[in-house]
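During the reporting period the student researcher (J.K.) took over the structure-prediction task from the postdoctoral fellow and processed the backlog of single-chain submissions. One of the processed entries is reproduced below for the supervisory committee.
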Amino acid sequence: MDKCVYIKSENGECVIICLYVDDMLIFGTCIDIVSKTKLFLESKFEMKDMGETSVILGVKVLRKGDSILLSQEQYTQKLLRKFGYYDFKSVSTPYDANSKLMKNRGESISQSQYAQIIGSLLHLMSFSRPDIAYAVSRLNRYTQYPSQDHWDAFARLMRYLRGTMDYAIEYSGFLAMLEGYSDANWISDSDETKSTSGYVFTLGSGTITWRSAKQTIIARSTMESELFALEMTGSEAEWLKNFLINILLRMKPTPSVSIHCDCQSTIVIAKNNLQWKE
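J.K. obtained the following structure tokens:
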């Protein structure tokens, strides 16, 4: 299911390799199978054993008792200092729900710097900060021609990060239930005709995947926008389910998936097999 993840099972034990360019994570059900895998790879490739993982791809791996935390606190600090927002007063939310952003029809303001910061925020959001996914997704739409309103919304996001630098994703246990949450907003900007979909999935008491994106088709009602979001969430759930089947030895039969949606009319249609056949 993922071309960067390799699994080997032998005599009831399992080792998993996650590869990204020249960075690699090796972990397994016991230390012996991990050590054997290292020795085998070192006999074939030039490698350097960095020991127990502390940082991978800019994400710090922290251990607290039986929990594992993924944090980018240092990355966030550097980001705030680099662009001059470290000394700003923090706010409690990353995005103003009453904000009505519009396409800039005038001169763009500091476009190259805006694009540079958005690129850094996309990295942060993708690796460890699902709480800023919606705000980053919205601001990313105006990378070509940012206006003062876009910069103001961006400044709010940076002030939010100033107060939440120590946020981390914590995995404190193993849960057999894969849970997903689906949502959508109705068209919120006057010059847009498409809504925004969002989902988040949790496993092992922590978030494992998330997304916020503009819908590719035009919804004619709130119910339809929620249905489109639910379809996107369902596609991700199917991929995750198949991925887990390959790597989790003790999750037989197929792991169950629970998807939550807050729109009753969408739930009714999703459960109506006749509606889908039409």
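The committee noted the following: The two ends are 31 Å apart (CA to CA).
J.K. will present the remaining backlog at the next meeting.
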